[in-house]
Amino acid sequence: MARIKTYDIDTSISSEDKVVGTDGNPGNNFGKTKNFTVGALSGFIRAGVVTQTTGTVDPSIEAGITGASYIGKIGHWTRTGNMVDVHLFISTTSFSISDPSQVLKITNCIPYAVEGSPITNDGAFFFMGTLLQHQNISNNGVEFPSLFLSQIKTNISGTDASTGISRPSGYSTAPIITSNLATEGLVLTLSFRYRCRTTETLLPGATKN
């Protein structure tokens, strides 16, 4: 075998090119010299790398209100492996109440379908979430001592998802409903994390940077 430095440099690398190395797996071939294709090495390296992607969603408010428009709404997400972090901001103009009993929901809020089986029959999933800011949500004008994000709820395919806002224990109705909203407008800032399915298919309204 000639000295390595005397070999020509391959300027057209393909997946079928080979390099020489030593087998490191315990067993009969341990320590033996082997050929490794560039394609096999590339696939092995990619499999061990956790990729990160970012993008946007277009969140919306569902409630028993009419006449509202959005002053601003922002939705950003970051996916690391199969974990997705979502950050949302929504602000509306004043509105009228049409159905005071309708539950407040934030929809179009996830970029990828939810992984796993629902914990309840209505498709509820546990997830980590924080309500960072809220305005004009109260109990007959009295501020709630604390509010928090509800579970994610989806259809069976995990693609039609929404989350809501819940009040603390001690109230007869857990979810925030339209009668708890002041008609001057609504402001929400929230973030949450969930596990998505192993898919690259974005849901409607979601985009990748």
Give a short synopsis of this structure.
The chain has one helix spanning 38-47, and strands spanning 18-22, 33-37, 52-56, 60-62, 65-66, 70-80, 83-92, 96-97, 105-107, 124-125, 128-135, 148-149, 152-153, 162-166, 187-195, 207-208. By secondary structure, it is mostly beta strands. β6 (70-80) and β7 (83-92) form a beta hairpin.
Walkthrough of the structure:
The chain has 209 residues and is mainly beta. The chain folds into two domains: 32 residues, no CATH class; 157 residues, Adenovirus Type 5 Fiber Protein (Receptor Binding Domain). It has a six-stranded antiparallel β-sheet, with no helix packed on it. Strands 4-9-14-12 form a four-stranded antiparallel β-sheet, with no helix packed on it. A hairpin with a 2-residue loop joins strand 6 and strand 7.
Explain the layout of strands and helices:
Layout: E1 18-22, E2 33-37, H1 38-47, E3 52-56, E4 60-62, E5 65-66, E6 70-80, E7 83-92, E8 96-97, E9 105-107, E10 124-125, E11 128-135, E12 148-149, E13 152-153, E14 162-166, E15 187-195, E16 207-208
Antiparallel strand pairs: 1-2, 3-6, 3-16, 4-9, 5-8, 6-7, 7-15, 9-14, 10-13, 11-15, 12-14
Helix residue percentage:
under 10%
Radius of gyration: 26 Å
Alpha-beta classification:
mainly beta
- Mean pLDDT level: 86
CATH architecture of the largest domain: Sandwich
CATH fold label of the largest domain: Adenovirus Type 5 Fiber Protein (Receptor Binding Domain)
Q: Which runs of at least 5 residues are low in confidence (pLDDT < 50)? A: none
Distance between the ends: 50 Å
- CATH class of the largest domain, anyone? Mainly Beta
User: What sequence of helices (H) and strands (E) makes up the elements?
Assistant: EEHEEEEEEEEEEEEEE
* Count of separate DSSP helical elements: 1
How many β-strand runs?
16
Largest sheet: spatial strand order: 11-15-7-6-3-16
Question: Quick one: biggest sheet?
Answer: 6 strands, antiparallel
Fraction in beta strands: 35-45%
Shape descriptor reads: elongated
